[in-house]
Amino acid sequence: MTTRNRSTSLFDFYGRPPILKALPLSLQHILAMMMGTVTVPIIVVGAVNASLDEKMALIQIALIASGISTLLQLYCIGRMGARLPAIFGVGFAYVPTLTAIGAQYGISGILGAQVAGGLAMMLVAVFIRHIRGLFTPVVAGTVVLVIGLSLYDIAINYMAGGVASSSRGSLLNWGIAIITLLVVLGVSHFARGFLQLASIICGIAVGYVLSVFCGLVDFSPIAAAPWFTAPSPMQFELEFHTAAIISMVIICVINSVQTIGDLSATTVGAMNRELSDRELSGGLLGNGVCTLLGSFFGALPTASYSQNVGIVAMTKVISRFVLALAAGFMLVAGFIPKFGALITTIPFPVLGGATIIVFGMITMTGIKLITKEEMSSRNVTIVSLALALSMGIYAVPDAIAQFPEMLKLVVGGSPIVVAAFVAIVLNLILPKKTLADEEQERLQIEMKMNGESQASR
């Protein structure tokens, strides 16, 4: 028997600690990943006006996809998977693009475009060594910053009660949303241990109970849902539209930057070493395969979960058995439709109050990435111009009203595409000057001006 098989350490990737020791640590990951996994399909369904059955199906398969994609990263199949302590699931970063495509082409358009997006991720995995230089911290940070900013209108609409709600903008809706938000803030900053990690869940629980007393919760979907159902392939048709495919490919490629960052943070923060090329390409390839195959079952695209990376880096618990228990819970929950039905009964104000702080954190993550590099004139130009053009067009959609329909969706449907394009192009063509280089240029200009001034006397 090898040392790998004998290990029971929490701090060994191959360690298999006793179940009673592993369960509480797995609970941390479950609480951290649950909100993102179920909220993304709810937001997308709201954008496409899908039926209740479709909403439940998307939540169910999102849970299953989260479990499977995480297990693949932990245990690997061939070259697929990073073999690192990382949690994967449906990601918030895709939401602006998914809602834009969904509003135009519906769920079928999203899933059809996702096939191309998954293939694009796999190509990135193959050529990552050659294209890694395109995604500098300034480029990646700008895109993440725009992702966060573009999510705010979703959260505000939810806090108001939802776009189509007859009570939209009422004091009751805003009261519930604000109370939910205050609970999340209070627990995240004043609680300790597991409770602090569950701040969003706590906020939703309080907001949900309050909504029940206010008569805003309809329990009929829970009663109607079966106890067990296995998802079947091709629940949704796949439709392929050029504009949707272009948008999806771009966001899937850009999201690979987040995966690179999260996997690097895992190895550096928890394992005290750099990320290997094998781990990087395997992680990207595994994510691409899950995204591709998920489209045939109705699972939205997957991504690494930064919040779980933070837990691993903080605790140094890297046992894949601990993370596998969390993945197993998500997998089992996905086969229980009553669980998904319960999630669908959460009122929009509760979701809005809980998620607006998450979207704010995404924005701050982008700012942190940007400031990893010095703020030279070159980098400031990249960030400012990408931000101005992307958010400007997003705020004034009529500005491109005369564009062809395909180009209108690609450019105006989501600010992420414009931000990514502008940031990458500027990063390639602008001269690479550091702050020291710029200071030296200013000194030379000043010396030249002083010399000319003296010569003229």
UniProtKB/TrEMBL annotation:
Primary location class: membrane
Membrane topology label: Multi-pass membrane protein
Pfam families on file: Xan_ur_permease
Cellular location(s): Cell membrane
GO CC field: plasma membrane
InterPro entries referenced in this protein's UniProt entry, alphabetically: NCS2, Xan_ur_permease
Keyword terms of this UniProt record: Cell membrane, Membrane, Transmembrane, Transmembrane helix, Transport
Transmembrane segments: 30-50, 57-78, 84-103, 110-128, 134-159, 171-191, 197-219, 240-260, 321-340, 346-367, 379-397, 409-430
GO molecular function, one term: xanthine transmembrane transporter activity
Similarity-based family: Belongs to the nucleobase:cation symporter-2 (NCS2) (TC 2.A.40) family.
PANTHER family the record matches: PURINE PERMEASE C1399.01C-RELATED, URIC ACID TRANSPORTER UACT
Protein's UniProt name: Uracil permease
Taxonomic classification: Bacteria, Pseudomonadati, Pseudomonadota, Gammaproteobacteria, Oceanospirillales
